[in-house]
């Protein structure tokens, strides 16, 4: 790690950055203090060395001051500090310089080979100087010990001055690298956790949007078809009210039945939304009163239509026994209800033909519900956009999938245009339902001027 990188890293962690190559100000203070002590030591040792070799004392002091002050750059250039220490070893100068320099070198990011070579050179230089000094001192005192004893003492002295700082520096450097790696790993884990939190939040937003879309699609499928049939019957009722009272009464009865079925399905969906996970009723939510008032208004409209034709009024909200219940079981409608669905469109004046191919069999609940909703929405679109047109519903049972097609011809103008509004979401909802199960959905106009809706849905239970 370079000195600039260390400064930037320390600054990023919030520590005050020091000048030049120091990462912190206290590091600078420590190095300056060590340099001053080392310079004073080398000054005294330089004067002593100058006396010994017959040099002026001032020259020895001038040489010792910059040598000792070299410790100020021990963090930036540890190799240079050790080389200066080795060079001044014959002059017996720089005791503190050598120890601190070797420690700084071993603790730095210098390659291990360079550390080993310089440490060995320092050890050898110290050993040679120690042997020579012992021999000289013993000769002056008139004592002549054996070479082996003098060499052993010199080796111990050289190892004592070289090995401890090198080993200490290696330990501190390894510990520093370990801490740095742990810190980087912690930072990496923190970034990963942040990314996971962001992704979890995105998935939560996506799930909420998907749930809103699903609820909107269910509400559209449940209400739009039956309300569209109610509007068609109401338009026919208005057209024949004076000419054929019997037919008007029958149409009014159909309007009431459709309204009760729509309210029953809507009430079941609202009941699911109002029920907590443990099955107990949830607390009142904002909008619950509005939903109840909406249901009551729809019931009142249905009752008024039946009252106008002389048909007995039965409350659809109170749940009085004898009220027809929509063919909605747990999980929604199934393919068994297609006959009733087609029959409702026939009662509304549409010419509908149902063709079933293949051996009838049951599919996964989601597959049957989706197939039913596709046919339901397709017939609703025929009521809206092609009044009076003939429609053909084809259903094919296959081993691992169910295929269906709803095709209508052009509007012949024979039907009554009820002026049904269109939100433009019917085809989108059908496509979303089919593709969510891995199926294929195709829709578009035919050459004859009509419209065709086709879907192939794989059987999830068989898969």
Automatic annotation (TrEMBL):
It holds the Pfam family HisKA_3. The chain crosses the membrane at residues 32-57, 77-102, 114-135, 147-173. This is histidine kinase. InterPro entries: HATPase_C_sf, Sensor_HK_TwoCompSys, Sig_transdc_His_kin_sub3_dim/P. It is an enzyme of class 2 (transferase). Keywords: ATP-binding, Kinase, Membrane, Nucleotide-binding, Phosphoprotein, Transferase, Transmembrane, Transmembrane helix, Two-component regulatory system. GO terms for molecular function: kinase activity. It catalyses: ATP + protein L-histidine = ADP + protein N-phospho-L-histidine. Its EC number is 2.7.13.3. The lineage of its organism: Bacteria, Bacillati, Actinomycetota, Actinomycetes, Kitasatosporales. Residues 211-277 form the Signal transduction histidine kinase subgroup 3 dimerisation and phosphoacceptor domain. Coiled coil: none annotated. CDD domains: HATPase_UhpB-NarQ-NarX-like (cd16917). PANTHER family: NITRATE/NITRITE SENSOR PROTEIN NARX-RELATED, NITRATE_NITRITE SENSOR PROTEIN NARQ.
